[in-house]
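Hi team,

Filling in the usual template for the complex we talked about on Friday. All components are listed, including any nucleic acid strands or ligand strings, so the model treats them as one assembly.

SUBMITTER: L.P.
PURPOSE: interface mapping
COMPONENTS: two
RESIDUES: 606
SEQUENCES:
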Amino acid sequence: MENIVEIKSLNLCVKEGKEEKVIFSDINAAACSSQFIALIGANGKGKSTLLKTISGILPNCGGGEILFRNKAIESYGRKERSSLLAFVGANNPRAKNLTVRGVLSINRYYKTNWLGSIKQEDEKRISEALEMVSLAGFEERDSSVLSDGEYQRVTIAGAIAQDTEAIILDEPTAFLDIANRFLITRLLRDIAHKSNKCIIFSTHDLQTAIQMCDKIWVMAGDGFYDDTPEKLMEQDIFNKIFDGQRIVFNRTTRSFEAVNETI
Amino acid sequence: MKKKRKYFVIPIMILVAFFICDNIFGGVYIPVKKIFFSLFSGNAGGICETEQNFIRDIIYNFRLPKAITALLAGTGLSLCGLQMQTLFRNPLADPYILGVSASAGLGVALFIMGGSALGINLGSAAFQTFGIAGAAMAGSILLLLLILAVSEKLKDNLSLLIFGIMVSSIASALINLLQYASNESALKMYVVWTLGSFTGLKSSQLLILAVLSVAGIILSVYNIKDLNAIMLGEQYADAAGINTKRVKIRIIVATTLLAGGITAFCGPIGFIGIAVPHIARMIYKDADHKVLIPASAILGGGMTLIADTLSQLPGSGNIIPINTMAALLGIPVIFAIIIKNRA
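RESULT (copied from the run log):
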């Protein structure tokens, strides 16, 4: 397995007006090809910011390094970056009458001519990507009338069609029912393992993450952890996610429980 | 897409028909046969030389320039409206949402009413029309420079939208002040400009308008890929490797030049720019700008041509302002399409 993404002592920062504020310091992590990695953390810890910074959408302003194939992410040009890494944001808006092919062709644009014409090669990638998310033959469908679960799969297919080494997804399973959440997580795992892609996604669904992921990145109260689910459980790291909020991690059920308060 | 290309054949034929209609009908009734003979055959069938010259004069110096102006204005404004609606992901956006008509209006108001307030005689009619167009164009270009200067500093498209609305409000307030201070004839001249008109363009003016419009139309066609790319929002485009800042600037430059140029020579023409893109979307049921750009251009040109023809049909006596005609004509079309699409 090759190292795809490497993060070295990164200080995650956000811009508030002109001021830059570090919201999470000293992040060290690595992701390899065909690894399926979940990013876990409480609301407001900076999961989205971290994923966007890794993707190069937000600037790395707090110091530290983000390496993509041993080269700093900033050193890649825009087009080169899109050929290495795809990002799927949360809550993607929809456009009326836009076909599924239309959505996926946006992901192919960095390869197309000035008019954005879809060639046979692009067409092939698009139908392959749709097949991988079990939406084969959906090319001509109006993307705006699909269900939330189907549309989420379309955006994932877009990332696949972009033909990159890594895919980063911001909460791909939020707003979905439990069946769809399971379906999409399993789908992402299969894509990672079968097509050797490195997939990193943020989620609040720890139970599924423990079950399916090769590694979990944890943004805990006392620091950043990057390890396999088993080791993280052994070291009792998950209990540090909601430190001091009367919630404990139960290792047998692999889920969080409220602390019983005796009156 | 390939299937849809053939659907443009009939609209283009209708567009050509409307263009011819606009040349045939007008304030003075001339039979079609006479027009044909005067224009295309040297020895006319029973029409005397003077009458032929008279007809040629009407067609070449009045109706043809008017029809070309209407065609360019309709095409250009529809393309502007479409691009603004896509950029702001807002169905209510129109060509003037960034403040083009208000700033062009302020330029015109300063020229007409500012001049009269200072007691300057505007002189000949030719100087007036050129001056009005120049002042409107200057207003639009200043606005464009202002937007380009601030767009780097604005957080997102919503801020840009608010900025445009604020510019419009400030310009309107200044225009009101000028109106209050100016004399009656200047005020009337300004109000007439705001009603919008395709008539009275000299060939030199028409040439400037044509150059600006064609340049704007070419830029709009060049924007097709960018427009498709930002349909799902800036974040999606950003992630797919599209430089959204450059996209925004391209769209703003194309629309401001196009809308500014048209407003300069025709006045603020409302309704067409906001309605035609919707009609195009409803007819073609496609979000791809490879379809929507040509569709809006053709439908927009056709809409202004038919509106212009109807606004001065013989026998109606007075000429109905083009803005009024466009709204009267377009609204039923939109309602019809909405009701038809409901089923």
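MY TAKE: The mean pLDDT of chain A is 90. Chain A touches chain B at residues 55, 57, 78-79, 81-83, 86-89, 92-99, 102-103, 105-107, 109-110, 112, 114-116, 155, 158, 162 (CB under 8 Å).

Thanks, L.
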